[in-house]
Amino acid sequence: MLAARPGSHPMNTTASDIVARIVRLEPMRVASVQAFSEAPERDAWEKLQLWAEAKGLLDLPQEHPVFGFNSPGPGPKGKRYGYEFWIRVGPEVEAGAGVEIKDVPGGLYAVTTCKLLGDPAGSVMEVWKKLWKWAQNSGHPWRKTHELERLHDPRLAAGDLVLDLYLPIES
C-alpha cells in the first residue's frame, strides 16, 4: 500500500513552504535498474522503460509505482554518479537483462509533492532540503535508508512530471 493506513499518521502540516504528510510504505517486491554516468536518471529510465513497457507495467502507475534514488550519490569532484529506479511488481514477474528483482522493506516516510521543473517551492533539491528541515522540526529523525522519489506518471515529459519525495523517518 502506498497511502497512509487509516489511523497510522494522518498528519498534514506545513512548514518551510511545503506540505508534508507521514506515510507508511508497505514492503514491496520491485524490479530494479541502475545506471552510472553523467546523466544516470535518463540512462536508468531508458533501461526501465524498455523493460517495463514491454510488460505493460507503465500503464498502471498506481499498481506499479516507480521510485528512484541516487545510488551512489554525486561525489564532490566527479560528474558521474549513479541512479536506481524501482517499479513495484507482482510475484509472477521475472528479472530480465539488466533488471534485478528485489524485496524492499517498508517503513515510515515524511512525504511532500513537487514538480520536477518549475515548482513554486523551488528546485527538487530545494524541496528536499525543506522536507529535511520539516522532519527535523517535527521531531521525526531521519532513518538510514534510501530517500525515494516517486513519479506520479512516469510517461509524462520532464516539464510535466510530478514527484512525491519520500524522506525515511523513525516512528
**Strand content bin:** 35-45%
Arithmetic mean of pLDDT: 87
Calculate the terminal CA-CA distance, rounded to whole Å. 18 Å
Structural class by SSE content: alpha+beta
What is the total number of structural domains?
2
Rg over CA atoms: 16 Å
Widest sheet: strand ordering: 1-2-7-9-8-4-5-3-6
The shape is globular
Give the SSE string. Answer: EEEHEEEEHEE
Count of DSSP-assigned helices: 2
For the sheet with most strands, the description reads: 9 strands, antiparallel
Q: How many E strands?
A: 9
Walk me through what this model shows.
It contains 2 helices and 9 strands; from the N terminus they run βββαββββαββ. The chain has 171 residues and is of the alpha+beta class. Strands 1-2-7-9-8-4-5-3-6 form a 9-stranded antiparallel sheet. A hairpin with a 2-residue loop joins strand 1 (12-15) and strand 2 (18-25). It starts with 11 loop residues before the first strand and ends with a strand. Mean pLDDT is 87; it is low at 1-15.
What is the secondary structure topology, with strand pairs?
Layout: E1 12-15, E2 18-25, E3 28-37, H1 40-54, E4 66-70, E5 81-88, E6 100-104, E7 107-115, H2 124-137, E8 148-151, E9 162-168
Antiparallel strand pairs: 1-2, 2-7, 3-5, 3-6, 4-5, 4-8, 7-9, 8-9
What is this entry, summarized?
The protein is of the alpha+beta class. It contains 2 helices and 9 strands. A hairpin with a 2-residue loop joins strand 1 (12-15) and strand 2 (18-25).
Descriptive tags:
9 strands; 171 residues; alpha+beta; 2 domains; 9-stranded antiparallel beta sheet
